Amino acid sequence: QVQLVESGGALVQPGGSLRLACAGSGSIFSFYTMGWYRQAPGKQRELVATITDGGSTNYADSAKGRFTISRDNAKNTVYLEMNSLKPEDTAVYYCYARNVWSRDEYWGQGTQVTVSS
After folding, report:
1. Which helix (H) or strand (E) holds 72?
2. Which DSSP letter does residue 88 get?
């Protein structure tokens, strides 16, 4: 059974940095597109960034220049490095994985990021 477990969420001041991690289990994640989505209170879940099995990345406009997604296939882990955080980045951040062959999708439980002074 595929499982995704996020970590790294915290309360941080505006301008600060955080590194989120998502550890996968139950499959070979080198065959997955991985990503991060977020959902703020009262808003729909939105894409933050994705990284393909080949290492190609895609970012939401709000994340470009501030966030970096990366993956370590040996550890079945995907990371999101977030810099210059703003209050509007406050949300629950969810890890996402999609098998490149079956297109089956999986979600983590989420980790809270709060940007506030």
Report:
1. strand 67-72
2. G
